[in-house]
Amino acid sequence: MRASSPRGGPLPDGPFAEDGAGSEAVLADLLARIGRRDEAALRVLYDRTAPKLLGVVLRIQSDRGMAEDVLQDVFLRIWQKAASYSPAAGRPLAWLCTIARNRAIDGVRRRSEVQGPATEDGEDWVERLADPHDSEGTILGRNALQACLGRLEALHRDCIVLAYCEGQSREDLALRYDRPVSTIKTWLHRGLATLRGCLDGAP
Predict the structure, then answer these.
(1) How many structural domains comprise the chain?
(2) What distance in Å separates the CA atoms of residue 124 and residue 53, rounded to the nearest whole number?
(3) Do 170 and 188 touch, CB atoms closer than 8 A?
(4) How many beta carbons lie within 10 A of that of residue 182, not counting itself?
(5) Are 29 and 21 in contact (CB under 8 A)?
(6) Is the N end or the C end of the chain the one with fewer CB atoms within 10 Å?
(7) Given a cut of 60, is residue 26 above it in pLDDT?
(8) Last residue of a domain, which of 79, 110, 141?
């Protein structure tokens, strides 16, 4: 027997299909019901979207156990904020993914996973990775950048910060870490690839 809402018709079964206006309409209806404190609708929304939202969280928080904890926080946030959703805010799935992404970033920040090398003048080294001449639409969000840097291996992250914030050359870094220049090149290449993949994958 299908679950039903005390304020509406039968609740939908089955996994969420990303494509199709029908599926988006279902999500919008579920959010409206959740906004009216319909717990059955929240359970259905969880069943339909949890795998997708967990994937969003895992792009930022690579530890699966912690990511699953964040996912629970995501659905608590959805329960609290569903009444504020409106189609003007965008597609329902995009709205849900934004909540998941923001909660994942907040989780990384709270755990202070990023401990990059301090700059000599005390300036925030994360800020230096955002080009101040970029347009508002292209400047990387500080929080997203910080979270993605937190996924890098410590040496790769430090090399990127020192190279792009402090202007140190590969030869400088090779002396600093007592490694061949070829190793430094590899660290930079891998670190930047991981960072780019994390930022490109964020919804």
Answers:
(1) 2
(2) 31
(3) yes
(4) 10
(5) no
(6) N
(7) yes
(8) 110
Q: What is the pLDDT of residues 34-87, one digit of tens each?
A: 999 999 999 999 999 999 999 988 887 777 888 898 999 999 999 999 999 988
User: How far apart (Å, rounded) are the C-alpha atoms in residues 151 and 168?
Assistant: 22
**Can you list the pairs that 77-82 forms with residues at least 24 positions away whose Cβ atoms lie under 8 Å?**
77/103, 78/31, 78/34, 78/42, 78/45, 79/34, 79/42, 82/31, 82/32, 82/34, 82/35
Supply 62's token pair.
Answer: 């690579």
Give pTM, 2 decimals: 0.51
Looking at the fold, whether 50 and 88 belong to one and the same domain comes out as yes
Domain range for 145: 125-201
- Measured between alpha carbons, how far is 160 from 116 in angstroms, rounded to an integer? 10
pLDDT of residue 141: 58
User: What is each CA distance from 94 to 112, 145, 148, 202, in whole angstroms?
Assistant: 27, 20, 20, 11
